[in-house]
Design brief:
alpha/beta, TIM Barrel, Jelly Rolls, seven-stranded mixed beta sheet, 17 helices, binds acetamide
Length: 682
Amino acid sequence: MRQIFYFIAILFLLWGCTKKRESEPNIIPLPLKCELTQQQFVLSGSCDITFDAPRDVAENIAEYLKTTILHPHDTKKTGTSNIVFRITDSIPGLSSPEGYKITTDKKSITILSTSESGLFYGCQTILQAIDNEGGMPCGVIIDEPRFAYRGMMLDVSRHFFDKEFVKKQIDAMARYKMNRLHLHLTDAAGWRLEIKKYPRLTQFAAWREHRLWKDWWELGRRYSEEGSANAHGGYYTQEDIREIVKYAAERHITIIPEIEMPAHSEEVLTAYPELSCTHEPYKQADFCVGNEKTFEFLQDVLSEVMELFPSEYIHIGGDEAVKSSWGTCPLCQRRMKEEGLQNVDELQSYLIHRIERFVNSKGRQIIGWDEILDGGLAPNATVMSWRGTEGGMAAVKAGHKAIMSPGTYCYLDQYQDAPHTQPEAIGGYLPLKKVYSYNPIPKDLDSAESELIYGVQGNLWAEYIPTPEHMERMIYPRILAIAEVGWSTPEVKCYDKFRQRALTAVEYLKDKGYNPFDLKNETGNRPEADNATDHMAKGKKVTYHSNAPYYDGYAAGGDSALTDGKRGAWNNNDGVWQGFIKGGIDITIDLEEKKAIHSIGADFMQICNPWIFMPCEVIISASDDNKEYTQLAHIKHNVVKDNTLTFKNFGWKGNTTARYIRYQAKSHCEGGWLFTDEIVVE
Ligand code: ACM
C-alpha cells in the first residue's frame, strides 16, 4: 500500500534571496549529524510537496503542514522546486523509527523515514532550519532521538489551565520533538477530569475557595460547589480531553494522564469521604486500602480514563503517601493480616500491584513515582524517578523501565534565575545551564541497564504559578534543554552553542505569543558561586564538635565542605551549602601553624518557607593550643522572618595571631536550619 503516490502542489509566496550559512544549523534539539554546505535551497515562487508514502501518512503530514509556514496557498500551480516526503524500509545508521534523513540540494528537499513520526520530525527540522528568507542549507541531515520518551509534565491541579493553553504548549512541544505530555490531573488542590460515574469530583472537588493555591493552602483548604460565588478552579470535560488527545496525536504527542493514588487525594476524600479510613471529610490524604470501595472507585475512574486516553501508559501517582491512618484503621489492618503484609509500605505496594493487574488487564501499563518501589515493585511497572536518580537506577537494575525526572535537574518550578529577579517560586535554583547539563543515564549502569532508561521528563508543578503567562515563563526556554537532553547525543551537546540557539528560540516563541523567560537578560548564579575562594583556611582540617553535626542530607561533601573554597549558589540544595539542624554549628579549624589573621567570616542563607534562618548568635574565637581560646567576636542577630531569600556574612575583622579558629552559630528556634558554605579566613 505504501507505494501509493500522493501528490499535493503547494505555492509558496514571499521567498527570495540567498545568504551565507553557519555550518551548525539553528535547530533544537541539535540533530545527530549535519553535513551542510554554503549552498541553499530557496523556497521561491511555487513549490511542489509530494509524498511517496501510504495515503494516510501523506494526508496526515499534509494536514499538519497547513498549520505551518508550509501552508498551501494555491494548489493549482506546479512549482519549480520541490519537497518530497518518502517512507522507506530502513535508513543506514539509524535504528529509531523516529529517525529521519533530509537531503537538500538547490532544487529539492527529500525527507526519508521509516515512519510517519520520522517524517514529522524531519518536517520540524526543516521548519526550524529555513531562515526568514526561505533559505535551507544544502547537504544532509541524519537524525534520530537518543531516548524514546521525551516528556513534559504540567500540574493542572494546583492551578487549572484550560484546553487552549494545553494545546498551545503541545504546538511548542512538537516543534522541539517532544512526544509525551503528562497531565497531573488530580491532587488535593482540585480534581480536573470529568468522570461520569462520580459527578461530585467535578461538581465539588474541582473547585476551591481561593483562586491562588497559596491562599487556599494557608486559609483552610476548603472546596466549593461548582457555580457558587467563591468557586475557583475548573476541569476538562470528556469532550475537551478527546480534543486535546486528538490534537496531540496529530503532533505525535501522547497524553499520559495521572490519577493520584493512594495519596494526594484530599479532594476525592472530601467529595467521597467513605473512601478514607475515618470517613471524615477534610481529614485524610490517603485512600483506605482496606476498603473494597476504594478499588471499585479507582477501577471505575481508570476505566473512564482508559476510554479517553489511548496512551499505553497510565500514571497512577504513588508518591508521598502519609500512611498514618492505615496503622490504626481496622479495615487496613485486616487487609494486612489477610494478605500477610508486614508494614504500611507493603500495604501501599498491595494497592499498586492490584491496580497494575487491572490496568494490564485492559492492555495498558502503569507508571508511578519512585515511591512505588517501596514495599515491592509491581511486576510490569515503569518508575518515574524524582527523588534523585536512585529510584530509576533501582528500577532498571530490577529489569524495569525508568523515566528520569530528578528534582535537581528536571523540576521547572524552581527559580531559573537569581531569586530576587523572579516571581516567587517554590525555591531552589535551576538555570537553563543546569537543566542542559543533565545526562539521564547514570554513570554506574551497564549497557543492558542503560537500555531500560526510557527517557527524561521536565516537571512543572504549579503551586506558585497561577497564570498561563507565568507557566510559560517557567517552561521556556528550560523545556528546550530537556528536549535536547532527551534527543541529542552527549557528543554533540555544547551549552554555549545551545544557549545561542535558545536565544533565537526565545525570540521565535515571543513572536508566536508565548511568554518565555528573558534569557538574554539572565542575571546568573550567585557571583561567589562561580569562583572558588582562595583563603588561609582553604584545605585545612575542620573538626565538628559532636554536639553540632552537619546533616547528612546536606553534607555538601562532608568534613572538608567549609574549607574547600567552593561557594554556594542561590539554592541550599546545590551540594555546596552545608546544612545544620541539631545543635547549630560548632567547628574548629586547624591552620597547622600560628598565623597572622585579619578576618574570619561565613555567609549564611535565609529562606523561611523551608525553615532556613540566619543564626541568632555567632561566637568566633582563636587559640594557639586548641585549649585556651580568646573570644574575637560575639554577634547577636535578631532573626526577622520574611518571604525573601537573603544572604548575610557573620564575621570578625581585626588583627590577631592563632593556629586554631572556633566558629559557633546558633539557630533561633528548634527545628530551624542553618546553612553556610565556607568559613573564610584571611
Ligand atoms: C512529586 O514531586 N511529589 C512527584
